[in-house]
Amino acid sequence: MKTTLILTTALVGAGFAAAAQEVNVVSWGGAYSVSQVEAYNKPFTEKTGIKVNMIDADNPASPLKAQVEAGNITGDVFDIEVSDAIRLCDEGALVEINPDDLPPAPDGTPAKDDFVPGALRECAVANIVWGTVIAYDTTKFPDGQPTLAADFFNLEKFPGKRGLPKNAKRTLYLALIADGVPAGEIYEKLATPEGVAQAFAKLDTIKDSVVWWEAGAQPPQLLADGEVTMATVYNGRIFDAIVSEGKPFDVIWDGQYMDLDMFAIPKGSPNPEAAMEYLKFATDTQRLADQAMYISYGPSRKSSAALVGMYKDGKTAMAPHMPTNPANIVNAVLDDPEFWADHDVELNEQFNAWLAN
User: Fold this and answer.
1) N or C, which end of the chain is more exposed by having fewer CB within 10 Å?
2) Strand extents, DSSP E, the chain
3) Distance CA 180, CA 183 (A)
4) 202-248 confidence digits (pLDDT tens)
C-alpha cells in the first residue's frame, strides 16, 4: 500500500513537528483487529490526526518476512509472536526499542518494571497475553460435557471431528498434556526424540478425525457449521463467538497455551517516526486496559489489570475470561520463544512429514 502524505496537525507530544502521515498496522483480523481499532487506532487518530490503516493477515509475520526479503517495506507496525520478533531482530530486520522511551505507569513506575515478564524485547513490545484453548459445542454432548485436555482425544466418550492448527507449535504440546505430561515438563519432553515420538503417537489416535485449520477465524466457524464438535482456538475468538454472537460453545482452560503478541517496526518502514509514536501510544496503561473492553486478552502491563472492567455489553465481567485469570492457568503451558527459535524449523519439518504419511 502506498503511503500518502496528508496535511494535518502536528503530532501531539511527539517531539517533532511534521505533517502527519498514515500508519499501516498489520494485524490478525477478526475480533482482535476490531479491538485494536477501537482501543488504539481511533483514539490515536483523534489525538494526533494520523490516519491508521488496519491491514489483516493470517499471520502478520509472513508479510513482514516477505517485505523484508523483497526490500520493499509497506507496513509500519506489525503485530507478531515473540519467537518471530526474536528471530527477525537477530536478523537485523527490526528497529530497536528503548524501554526508557515507553510511557511509565500512571503512578510513575518505569515501563521496564510495569510490563509482565518477557513483554519487553530488544526490538518489540508486547500488547497482549493470549491463550490457545479448547472450545466445544455444548449441544453435541448431552450426556456430559468435556472438561480436560484429555477429553479432546477421547473420541469414544466425546464423538465428532476435531479442529487443530496445521503447525507443530500448537499441536505437539496439547498431545503431551493429554497424555499426562505436566505443563512444566513440556519443553523438556519436546527437546528429545522420545518426547516428540510420544506426541505424534497421541496425535495418531485422532488423526483421521482432524480438520486442520490455518487462520484464527476458522475454528469458531468450523464449530458453528457443525464440521467439528471440538477445536483448539484463540481464546479471544471463541469469547467473541460465545458472548457477542450467542453461540452455544464453552471453553476448556486445561492445558491452555499462553503466549504474548508484540508490536514491532521493520527497518525501512515508510513512516518510522509516526510508527514509533503509535507503538508507544498503543502500549500505554490505559490503552491496554481499554482493549480488554472488546476482547478477552490480558493486558501486558501490570498497571492495566486494575482498570479492566466490563465487556462492551456492560454486563459481562472480563476478569473470568482472561487467560491470566488464576483459575485459568492451573495447567497452562507458557510459550518459550527461545525453544521455538531453536526447534521451530526442525519440529515443523517432522510435523509436515507426519501429516503427509
Assistant:
1) C
2) 23-27, 52-56, 77-81, 120-121, 124-137, 162-165, 210-213, 230-234, 249-264, 298-299, 333-334
3) 9
4) 999 999 999 999 999 999 999 999 999 999 999 999 999 999 999 99
Separation of alpha carbons 129 and 262, rounded Å: 9
Would you state the pLDDT for residue 17?
A: 37
pLDDT of residue 246: 95
User: Distance between CA 270 and CA 5 in Å, rounded?
Assistant: 11
Give 3-state DSSP helix, strand, coil % of the chain, rounded to 5: 40, 20, 40
State the CB neighbour count (10 A cutoff) for residue 271. 21
Q: Own/partner pairs for 31-34, CB < 8 Å, 24+ apart? A: 31/236, 31/237, 31/239, 31/240, 31/244, 31/294, 31/295, 32/216, 32/234, 32/236, 32/237, 32/295, 32/297, 34/294, 34/295
Counting as low any pLDDT under 50, the low residues of the chain are 1-20
> What CATH topology corresponds to 23-129+260-307?
D-Maltodextrin-Binding Protein; domain 2 (3.40.190)
CA distance 159 to 161: 7
Q: What is the pLDDT of residue 275?
A: 98
